[in-house]
Amino acid sequence: MERYGKITEEIYKELLSVTGPGGVIMNDAEVLDNYAWDQAGRIWGHMPEAVVKPADTAQVSAVMKIASREHIPVTPRGAGSGLNGGAVPLAGGVVLSLERMNRILEIDKVNRVAVVEPGVVTNDLCRAAAEEGFLYAGYPMSTETSFIGGNFATNAGGGKVIRYGNTRRHILGAEIVLPSGEIINLGGRFRKDTWGYNLLNLLAGSEGTLAVVTRLIVNLEPKPGRTVNLLACYPTVEELVESVAKVIGSGKRIISCEFMDKNLVKYTTEYLGCTLPEQERSEGYLLIQVEGDTEAQIEDGYETVGKICLGCGAFEVFVAESRTDSAAMWNVRQNGLEGMRARDPHACASGDLMVPLSAVPEMIRRIREISAEWKIEIGIISHIGDGNIHPIPLKPAEMPPERWAQHAEDFFAVLIREAIALGGVGSGEHGVGHVKQKVLMENKSPAELEVMQGIKRAFDPYNIMNPGKMFSPLA
Amino acid sequence: MERYGKITEEIYKELLSVTGPGGVIMNDAEVLDNYAWDQAGRIWGHMPEAVVKPADTAQVSAVMKIASREHIPVTPRGAGSGLNGGAVPLAGGVVLSLERMNRILEIDKVNRVAVVEPGVVTNDLCRAAAEEGFLYAGYPMSTETSFIGGNFATNAGGGKVIRYGNTRRHILGAEIVLPSGEIINLGGRFRKDTWGYNLLNLLAGSEGTLAVVTRLIVNLEPKPGRTVNLLACYPTVEELVESVAKVIGSGKRIISCEFMDKNLVKYTTEYLGCTLPEQERSEGYLLIQVEGDTEAQIEDGYETVGKICLGCGAFEVFVAESRTDSAAMWNVRQNGLEGMRARDPHACASGDLMVPLSAVPEMIRRIREISAEWKIEIGIISHIGDGNIHPIPLKPAEMPPERWAQHAEDFFAVLIREAIALGGVGSGEHGVGHVKQKVLMENKSPAELEVMQGIKRAFDPYNIMNPGKMFSPLA
């Protein structure tokens, strides 16, 4: 790591003169530690030298100019809610926290966009949009903590991707700061753009390895119709999985189709102090949301879906009769990771397998077989209607946490190879971060790696942006 | 152009040994001329040295290896229906025609995708999807001639973008051949992918300057509800334009919202030998398609939209009562360019301004003013609900065609600067090609150009892919 510059006293002062008092933190291990790890877990953390909190684009640009000149690594950070260590400053240097840039600048009703800074909490954007009669259609499970900038950086998915797509589709424009400090504006308040290579779509999901996002123009959808939630309980996972393609192919307006297995539900309901119906005999649940414009459409929707589930072997389908019912169902889904972590703080959230819908049964079967072979207890949670599966393994009790980090990575590497063999990829929405970087590199061809690294160089010739992530070496 | 290699007798034989008899055309000016220009018009054409027609991916790869070794320029070509000279071989060399790779390989009902070769005609894909109960949602106005590969290369838009997005959104995976001949697979039969930088989204709209597409995995939508078409006639363009944001913001399921001005309708109906209602007194028409699941929804849709139009000053709104009615309306819209060209074969189709919906009235006003100042007769056709406007200028009668090529480019350059000043860009769906390359380069910052050119180098270090387009110099 000699290649990178260090933050000297002089550079510290220079950074401070950019941000003003309170904008740079150094030599305070307790505070710095908060920026050393993300929701992948502490064992994947790494301490930064400094945290810098710019208040606006000009400050971001000035900081990047200094970092570029001095070859200091910069790791942009949103809420730190990522699940793969994407925001961990592996090479030390600066964590560039966007937390102070948290304003919703405008809701533009005619063009149906919001203009926001990257540090806006996703849910705040949802609420602001709703107040003006719109829907922000992104719905990552971390909606109450994650920042919209982080959603963009990871191309976050979540519970409504079947209907609305992932974050890439919701972002129409961005102001970005290149590693050199130059500011570029991409896209705009419109929905079509063939004016050059589409950098905006490339940046979505690039995990802070190419540029810093300082402003976003966000698509707003018309307010959706009414929705209803169904919870289907199955005696076997096989029967559950069989339903999924049929539900998705039903032609009804399916907004969500989520899977929770018995283990996950057990630990999560224990954690929340609640129960789901039929918990004793259910091996798994499907949580399905159906939309309709009229009462008749809604009824037709849930009756059709309910019949499919029962036909595939569900022994019960509950239709939420109130907002309270719905909230209770979704509460378990949203807290799945927390539930597993209450059972074991080292429960690993990086699993994010993506396969074609037709391969979901085989993928689930392989996950369960391989977990058994490895003697690893897992819970499974899944945006199963997308073919996106999150196995959450628990650390074997006797294994030291230091070893678990590597063991979990190895376990996921095996699963990822299975997903790829089934026509899938190793991440659908959580990204690569550094937990999965090695397996990413092993599973791309040399030709593809060369292109990816060429793109990285085009943006970041000195490799100062989030080194050690995606396709960038750790120097 | 000395930098590039020439196709010697030996290389010709080598290419022929790759494709087999009939796969390489050289020294036949009459045939080569068919591949020298696209729908931008003959005056923007340039002759290739040879046309190569590979039959499969292995042949494409072998051809690219030869071209790479010999530094021979390669310009991939679909149907040649592009409107900006994107498929014109500016540096000579090889036109790589994908016309023989025209098979629909599979309709995969469970994963709701089609797997196709790039030379499939868009409409053939639409029909094959419909036969299986699906919708291919791309709808470029050239649907009966354009290839799906060309749709991807230009990120084609068209008449249903408001509802379904442009081609990028419909493409889930691709097999591509790099300039080096290496084959890469991107994406797959799924709808989420954060497994590395998203090359698939970058390639959409890259106009054959980065790689050759040899296979596409295409998203299929469930069959849509019923639709109805409305034609609203306005005494002034100002009143028409006022309606648009209100129609789009109505919350009804608007599939299309298209504008045709008086001039365009006049020449197009003359060309087709038909009339539209109220043609004498209408300065412009809105053609609006509304979707609904039930008769009541449809009625509610067209009544709401109709009232908006009348409230803004339309003196008449016609609801198509039959498929014949609908076809008559859309026939004029689809033949707008042909109508203008029947009036003047040099009518220039490259205008593709993109502005926020809120800026549409001002943009239309400026187009009309500037055309008047330049004494250029225009027709305007527009996916106005997207903020995407196609002014089609006619060559002044006394101007020689050679001069018109430059004059039209200059005219568009002025309009594009206006669009950019209004928060827009210079192309929404037709792309840049070479007709607009100069103005593109002039209107991007040096920092952005550097990134764009770095991306080009990452794919194509010898600049053999479609030189002279987008950000690649002509050597």
TrEMBL record, chains A, B:
Keywords: FAD, Flavoprotein, Oxidoreductase. Its cofactor is FAD. Transmembrane segments: none annotated. PROSITE patterns: FAD_PCMH. GO terms for molecular function: FAD binding; oxidoreductase activity. Residues 44-223 form the FAD-binding PCMH-type domain. It comes from the Bacteria. InterPro entries: FAD-bd_oxidored_4_C (IPR004113), FAD-bd_PCMH (IPR016166), FAD-bd_PCMH-like_sf (IPR036318), FAD-bd_PCMH_sub1 (IPR016167), FAD-bd_PCMH_sub2 (IPR016169), FAD-linked_Oxase-like_C (IPR016164), FAD-linked_OxidoTrans_Type4 (IPR051914), Oxid_FAD_bind_N (IPR006094). This is FAD-binding oxidoreductase. It comes from Cloacibacillus evryensis.
